[in-house]
Write a structure and sequence with these properties.
alpha+beta, Cytochrome Bc1 Complex, Chain D, domain 2, 4-stranded antiparallel beta sheet, 13 helices, 16 strands, about 30% helix, globular, binds heme C
Length: about 375
């Protein structure tokens, strides 16, 4: 399932000229993707097949509700939204144009829709967000073209309200512009909700425990073998779409759902973000050190791997054993794009690549690459900075 190329796959549905199963059309959505749009049962079936452990809260909840007669019959959530600008106390000016619900079945059209939704589709109401709108920089949020990335005004039944979009946590502001998909290490949601999490982390589970995780780098999501740090789901375009669909339903409290085109568009957009990452070198000393010390876990083009038992890593088992997402395993994340990540690991324990390979570092987890001589360490760092 994983890494399936979207471009150039055949649209199995009948085409405009009436031929079934015509020649592959470059840029058309894959047959799987079309099935997800047309058959309401395709998303639930893909999610069911992708679940790694049926005995956790995530699996139980999805299996109970993500089906016809329940979540799939909810009304579509397409609220009127307004851009959120620094200092506003209510929406000003015209609403944004409503995103299309039936774009052409082409990768490019879905990618563009997904990008718009990633920045503008409200996924979570958080009381008190107006403090972040008043002073976005203090909360680690960027401003692009006068608008605060990651916040959106929603015409909600009780009056205008601010909501988070995917971009609040998964787009990083930099002086050279935002990096779409990269975890935002500065977004300080804790300061809004009054919790003790550090910036760049949040507890996104409903397991009743305070187990925040750092915001992952979604540019690499196409390369992941499994999704979520606890390796909750096997990866693929349909599982990713179903993950987004059910995530939005759950965060809206189970009262509305996104149009299926929106969930698929988000997944297509995220898969296409991999195009923004450089291809790793296949030769050279740093690559050779990596192959010897790291590649049995971080393997292949994506430098990602099959999940490993959590005690192999020595990471905080509290995080991996969340009753909601528990699988007993830990995702071996893709390292593509790793040089841009400020805080490494699920718990954000290590700051940057130099600290990762510092034998004197305090964090006791992930003890790999710590016994290299100086030249090998330097070569490995150069390789890691180039991927
Ligand atoms: C409040 C911050 C926040 C928002 C908003 C948010 N996420 Fe996340 N996201 C997280 C955190 C934290 C994790 C890590 C969870 C884990 O690993 O269990 C995560 C994990 C993910 C993953 C798994 C990545 C991987 O490599 O395993 C995907 C995919 C994802 N988010 C997509 C989205 C999309 C799409 C949206 C918008 C619909 C969104 N997120 C909104 C915080 C957020
Ligand atoms: C036994 C398997 C294994 C080996 C060997 C291994 N890793 Fe990892 N690596 C993991 C796992 C699992 C994680 C996720 C742990 C977590 O998030 O707490 C990880 C996470 C990372 C991260 C953090 C990525 C992020 O986005 O947070 C980096 C960087 C990394 N590894 C680099 C390396 C390097 C460099 C080597 C070789 C010197 C290496 N790893 C060897 C399994 C491994």
């Amino acid at each position: 399932m994983r890494g399936r190329a979207l471009v150039g796959l055949l649209v199995a549905a009948s085409t405009a000229c009436g031929e079934a199963a015509a020649d592959p059309e470059p840029g058309a959505l894959s047959a799987d993707a079309v099935r997800y749009l047309e058959d309401p049962a395709a998303g639930p079936a893909a999610l069911e097949a992708a679940l790694v452990n049926l005995d956790n809260g995530y699996a139980r909840d999805r299996r109970a509700h993500y089906r016809v007669g329940d979540w799939l019959d909810l009304p579509e959530w397409r609220p009127r939204v307004y851009p959120a600008r620094p200092g506003e106390t209510r929406p000003v000016g015209a609403p944004l144009a409503a995103p299309e619900t039936d774009p052409p079945r082409e990768t490019d059209a879905f990618r563009a829709l997904g990008e718009a939704l990633f920045f503008d589709y409200p996924v979570q109401f958080v009381p008190g967000l107006s403090v972040a709108l008043a002073d976005p920089a203090r909360f680690g949020l960027g401003v692009t073209d006068g608008r605060v990335d990651g916040l959106i005004w929603v015409d909600a039944p009780g009056g205008p309200a601010l909501a988070l979009t995917c971009a609040a946590c998964h787009s990083r502001p930099t002086t050279a512009g935002r990096v779409e998909g990269l975890g935002n290490p500065d977004f300080d949601l804790a300061r809004v909700v009054g919790s003790a999490w550090p910036p760049g982390m949040a507890d996104v589970t409903a397991d009743g425990r305070d187990d925040p995780m750092s915001f992952p780098d979604l540019r690499a999501v196409r390369f992941q073998h499994t999704l979520n740090r606890a390796a909750t789901l096997r990866n693929g375009l349909l599982p990713l779409a179903a993950r987004a669909e059910t995530q939005i339903i759950a965060s809206l409290g189970g009262v509305a759902r996104p149009p299926r085109t929106y969930a698929l568009a988000l997944a297509v957009y995220l898969f296409e973000l991999s195009e923004t990452l450089p291809a790793p070198a296949t030769t050279g000393r740093g690559r050779a050190v990596f192959d010897a010390a790291c590649a049995h876990c971080h393997a292949g083009d994506g430098l990602a791997g099959e999940p490993v038992p959590i005690d192999r890593i020595g990471a905080d088992p509290y995080l991996a054993e969340s009753p909601e997402r528990r699988t007993g395993y830990w995702q071996v994340p893709s390292l593509r794009g790793v040089a841009d990540r400020e805080r490494l690991f699920a718990g954000g324990e290590v700051e940057g690549l130099d600290a990762l390979l510092d034998p004197g570092r305090a964090w006791p987890g992930h003890r790999f690459g710590l016994v290299l001589d100086a030249a090998d360490r330097a070569a490995l760092l150069t390789f890691l900075r180039s991927i």
